């Protein structure tokens, strides 16, 4: 008989919860997929397949060591790295990013990102709102959860919002917030285990799993009363498409890829320089290829986390360990998407929660610096091959063209074909909430 014993997960606040809550009960009645399908049906959303891959660099990468080097600044500011030319005349980036430099015509660098706050969470980059700020009743939803709510799945057998690589410490997906657990992220590392048909469970015995839904009726009714969940209806049948289809599992099976392509992503080389909390996890570079395969299979938003950039000590040593594999993985992803004709429909964003201090500290590290940070964008039909914004001589503040984080979110929604306008979604107090605060897409990228 199948079991309901699922390993407990610890959230960043220390609360234990069962894995089925992370996906809204996918394997136990299909609450998550049911709500997604209902949202699409009710809204009459077209099944377009614009999508986003969000690469999150937890801890905040040093902006002036990646894309905004200051070679004329004093040694304690400029650090150890030198700038190199790129395929875009006049645009230089770090010497440890040669592959990205060679593809810069397909990328856009933003050197003047503002709106960050000094807190180690994913909230700003995943929701657009600080964790410790104005709250919506039920909490702000993650970007991928919003996409799930507004557009639903492309294929009933592939969740629209998938995490393709691990997060640790305070860097966890903020969750679906006031949208409810039906729009939670599907964790490709752990939730997939719920889909495996281990002996003696066979397709013929899936009715046993369906019967388990009755055990959670009271759980779902509780969510119904709060407005955070939904009951079962005809859409529940589609949840079992995931259990009976190999589409998602095949997307996660990297052995199906050409070994030469896997080599381009850097397979088998590990991820040097990662802290102990990531020990034993699959190399992040492999998850970039997983992200492409998930998008190809039908996911709308895929998130992945790479490395640890909270380098308060030995900043340059940490960057020497991590930047080469980030360079290889991101450039391979862009090239792969481009060669498959997917790049115009897939927007890639690479960023962290804030920048790092211009002055190198006594421990050879750089400290938190929310005043300005950087971002890298590609694909999505954007006007790439340019740099937007600049910072002052020591990279401590924006000199011209500040780009608020909400403008980046507005750009991502634009690339997905979602006209924000006056779009509001009700929170759990039934108050209409703006997804972002009065921001427009970045004009240099979309006009």
Main traits of this protein?
447 residues; alpha/beta; 9-stranded mixed beta sheet; two-stranded antiparallel sheet; 16 helices; 19 strands; globular
Q: Based on helices, strands and strand pairing, what is the structural class?
A: alpha/beta
Helicity range of the residues? 25-40%
Radius of gyration: 22 Å
| Poorly predicted sequence stretches spanning 5 or more consecutive residues | 1-37, 39-47, 193-220, 226-235, 277-282
End-to-end separation:
58 Å
- Beta strand %: 15-25%
Please report the total strand number as a whole number.
Answer: 19
- Average pLDDT works out at 80
In short:
The chain is an alpha/beta fold and 447 residues long. It is built from 16 helices and 19 strands.
Structure notes:
Strands 3, 6, 7, 8, 9, 10, 13, 14 and 17 form a 9-stranded mixed sheet that branches. The chain has one domain (8-446). It has 447 residues and is an alpha/beta fold. Residues 1-37, 39-47, 193-220, 226-235 and 277-282 have low confidence and may be disordered. β4 and β5 form a beta hairpin. It has helices spanning 19-22, 31-43, 63-66, 75-78, 98-102, 123-126, 143-151, 206-212, 217-226, 236-244, 247-251, 259-265, 284-297, 315-339, 405-415, 443-446; strands spanning 8-10, 16-18, 51-56, 83-85, 92-94, 107-114, 161-163, 186-187, 301-305, 346-351, 355-356, 368-369, 373-379, 386-388, 390-391, 398-400, 403-404, 424-426, 432-434. Helices cover 30% and strands 15% of the residues.
């Amino acid at each position: 008989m199948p079991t309901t014993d699922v390993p407990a997960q610890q959230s960043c606040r220390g609360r234990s919860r069962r894995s089925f809550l992370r996906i809204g009960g996918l394997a136990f009645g299909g609450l998550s997929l049911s709500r997604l399908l209902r949202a699409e049906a009710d809204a009459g959303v077209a099944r377009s397949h614009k999508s986003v891959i969000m690469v999150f660099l937890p801890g905040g990468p040093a902006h002036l060591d990646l894309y905004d080097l200051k070679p004329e600044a004093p040694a304690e500011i400029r650090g150890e790295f030198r700038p190199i030319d790129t395929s875009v005349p006049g645009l230089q980036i770090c010497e440890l990013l040669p592959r990205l430099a060679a593809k810069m015509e397909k990328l856009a660098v933003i050197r003047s990102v503002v709106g960050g706050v000094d807190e180690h969470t994913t909230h700003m980059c995943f929701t657009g709102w600080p964790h410790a700020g104005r709250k919506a009743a039920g909490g702000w939803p993650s970007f991928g959860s919003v996409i799930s709510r507004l557009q639903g799945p492309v294929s009933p057998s592939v969740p629209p919002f998938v995490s393709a690589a691990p997060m640790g410490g305070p860097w966890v997906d903020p969750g679906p917030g006031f949208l409810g657990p039906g729009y939670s992220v599907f964790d490709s590392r752990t939730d997939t285990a719920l889909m495996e048909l281990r002996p003696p469970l066979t397709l013929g015995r899936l009715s046993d799993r369906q019967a388990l839904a009755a055990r959670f009726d009271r759980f779902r009714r509780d969510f119904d009363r709060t407005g955070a969940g939904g009951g079962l209806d005809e859409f529940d049948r589609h949840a079992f498409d995931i259990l009976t289809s190999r589409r998602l599992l095949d997307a996660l099976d990297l052995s199906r890829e050409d070994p030469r392509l896997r080599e381009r992503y850097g397979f088998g080389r590990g991820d040097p320089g990662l802290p102990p909390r990531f020990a034993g996890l699959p190399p992040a570079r492999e998850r970039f290829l997983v992200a492409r395969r998930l998008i190809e299979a039908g996911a709308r938003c895929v998130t992945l986390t790479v490395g640890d950039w909270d380098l308060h000590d030995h900043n340059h040593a940490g960057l020497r360990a991590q930047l080469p594999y980030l360079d290889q993985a991101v450039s391979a992803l862009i090239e792969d998407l481009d060669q498959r004709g997917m790049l115009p429909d897939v927007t890639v964003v690479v960023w962290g929660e804030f920048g790092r201090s211009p002055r190198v500290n006594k421990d050879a590290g750089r400290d938190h610096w929310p005043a300005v940070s950087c971002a890298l964008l590609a694909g999505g039909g954007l006007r790439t091959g340019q740099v937007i914004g600049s910072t002052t001589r020591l990279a401590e503040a924006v000199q011209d063209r500040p780009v608020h984080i909400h403008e980046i979110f507005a750009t991502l929604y634009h690339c997905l074909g979602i006209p924000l306008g006056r779009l509001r979604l009700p929170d759990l107090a039934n108050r209409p909430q703006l997804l972002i605060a009065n921001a427009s897409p970045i004009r240099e990228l979309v006009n």
